Predict the structure.
Amino acid sequence: MMQNIQRVDVVDAKGYQAIKKRRYYASFLFLAANALLQYNPR
């Protein structure tokens, strides 16, 4: 039983890190797009 709980915790931690990475990349792309729009006014 304890081993199963530990495995679930590890999976949750990996999923949490993946979500953090996705949010980081999304915010980075958003900021990059904003900068490009500011440098290229149409």
Remarks:
- The mean pLDDT is 80.
- The helical segments are 2-39.
- The chain has one domain: 1-42.
- Residues 1-42 form one domain.
